[in-house]
């Protein structure tokens, strides 16, 4: 069914967690909002991740990353405890396995530094870690414990934000792929989709890696890079794991080997086809599936790399030996929006009037997306960006394309 020439005050492109959060907080402030999603809600990275949360607290002087993470935690709590949405949120804590003496030395210094800044982290011996996560291997050197961490269901969380926005008057339209955007002298935008035409005074880009393609429709270079994250899962089994789970190997590698290649972001597991390190995160879901993933490769392909899946599974078995008996039941992958400096873009794009963007949260989109949407909604509402968003100002990264 086609729609023709629908006019709205604010139009959002993108039905992931940042787009739906922006819609919710804008409608909460009384704005008229339409959200367009080219597929179904949470059909890309917002719904394909493991749903792990890695908060470490506000600290004594929180930076943008901490504000996004801790603000997101408050939104998860509100959705489930106050608004009554079953998003499977649980603040069970998070553990990162330490496998070598070098990793332990690194994390001892890191924990000391973080504690001095007021953050909630601690090192646990292997025995103490096994008391809260019994299946951990006895061969570990210990674990980093983040007691404020936890997990939630990514699809249900995104759908809850969309539902909360709809209850406040937002129109959420799926299967509306944008094909062109025009900006007129009267400052209005005309957005043409596969199912209709929309006009708006204010346009918000919240389409993850696809912000780059949408920007090109307006002669803008939005330097978002698609990084594939891939996952695998067992079938449902009785509860054996209790925390958000990861490993220290990649963090130690990235600290010891900072690298920067032209147009390639740091903190990837591969450079071209060569593996740099192993990255690991996962959990057991409410339905009993054990899901893990971790590889980060710069590519537009959403087809899982089976060799990488096997490397990841072997890594998991090193930490949880019992998983050797449970075969992989399914694999999947999605594209995360990285920037070359790992700084997000949240705010007004200065090249056009009333044009805003929220993207570039890299691998932390699920954890930080809800608060990013709230901060952008406040920016649109007040006409001014919070000072905490200075490092995420789009003026630093978005440029006009040369003809």
- What name does CATH use for the topology of the largest domain? FAD/NAD(P)-binding domain
The general outline is globular
Number of helices: 10
How large is the share of residues in beta strands?
25-35%
How does the major sheet shape up?
8 strands, mixed
Distance between the termini: 37 Å
Rounded to an integer in angstroms, the radius of gyration calculated over CA atoms is: 21 Å
Give the class from helix and strand content and strand pairing: alpha+beta
Corresponding CATH superfamily of the largest domain: FAD/NAD(P)-binding domain
- Number of distinct beta strands: 22
| CATH second-level architecture of the largest domain | 3-Layer(bba) Sandwich
Helical fraction equals: 25-40%
Number of domains: 2
**Uncertain regions: pLDDT < 50 for 5+ in a row?**
none
Task: Just give the CATH class of the largest domain.
Answer: Alpha Beta
The overall average pLDDT, rounded, is 96
SSE blueprint:
Elements: E1 3-13, H1 17-28, E2 33-36, H2 45-48, E3 52-53, H3 64-82, E4 94-98, H4 101-116, E5 122-124, H5 126-132, E6 142-146, E7 150-151, H6 154-167, E8 171-173, E9 178-183, E10 189-193, E11 196-205, H7 211-216, E12 220-221, E13 225-233, E14 244-247, H8 249-256, E15 270-271, E16 274-275, E17 281-284, E18 290-298, H9 306-319, E19 330-338, E20 345-348, E21 355-359, H10 365-382, E22 399-400
Helix pairs in contact: 1-6, 1-10, 3-10
What's this entry about, in short?
By secondary structure, the protein is an alpha+beta fold.
């Amino acid at each position: 069914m086609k729609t023709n020439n629908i006019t709205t005050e604010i139009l959002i492109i993108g039905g992931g967690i940042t787009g739906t959060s922006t819609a919710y907080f804008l409608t909460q402030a009384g704005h008229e909002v339409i959200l367009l999603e080219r597929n179904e809600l949470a059909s890309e990275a917002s719904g394909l991740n493991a749903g792990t949360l890695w908060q470490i607290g506000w600290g004594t002087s929180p930076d943008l990353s901490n504000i996004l993470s801790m603000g997101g935690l408050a939104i998860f709590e509100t959705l489930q405890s106050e608004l009554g949405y079953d998003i499977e949120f649980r603040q069970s804590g998070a553990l990162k396995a330490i496998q070598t003496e070098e990793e332990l030395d690194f994390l001892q210094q890191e924990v000391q530094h973080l504690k001095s800044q007021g953050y909630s982290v601690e090192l646990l011996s292997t025995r103490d870690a096994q008391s809260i996560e019994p299946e951990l291997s006895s061969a570990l050197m210990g674990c980093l414990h983040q007691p404020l961490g936890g997990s939630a269901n990514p699809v249900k969380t995104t759908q809850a934000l969309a539902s909360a926005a709809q209850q406040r008057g937002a129109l959420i339209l799926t299967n509306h792929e944008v094909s062109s955007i025009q900006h007129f002298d009267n400052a209005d935008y005309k957005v043409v989709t596969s199912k209709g035409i929309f006009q708006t005074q204010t346009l918000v880009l919240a389409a993850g890696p696809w912000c780059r393609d949408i920007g090109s429709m307006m002669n803008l270079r939005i330097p978002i890079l698609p990084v594939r994250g891939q996952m695998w899962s067992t079938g449902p089994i009785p509860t054996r794991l209790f925390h958000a789970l990861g490993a220290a190997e990649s963090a130690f590698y990235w600290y010891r080997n900072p690298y920067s290649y032209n147009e390639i972001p740091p903190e990837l597991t591969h450079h071209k086809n060569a593996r740099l390190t192993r990255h690991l995160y996962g959990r057991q879901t409410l339905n009993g599936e054990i899901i893990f993933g971790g590889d980060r490769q710069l590519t537009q392909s959403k087809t899982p790399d089976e060799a990488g899946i096997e490397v990841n599974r072997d890594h998991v078995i090193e930490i949880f030996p019992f998983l050797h008996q449970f075969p992989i039941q399914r694999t999947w992958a999605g594209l995360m929006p990285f920037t070359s400096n790992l700084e997000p873009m949240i705010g007004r794009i200065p090249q056009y009037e009333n044009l805003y963007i929220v993207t570039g949260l890299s691998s932390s989109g699920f954890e930080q997306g809800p608060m990013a949407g709230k901060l952008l909604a406040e920016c649109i509402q007040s006409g001014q960006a919070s000072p905490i968003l200075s490092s995420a100002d789009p003026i630093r990264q978005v440029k006009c394309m040369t003809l």
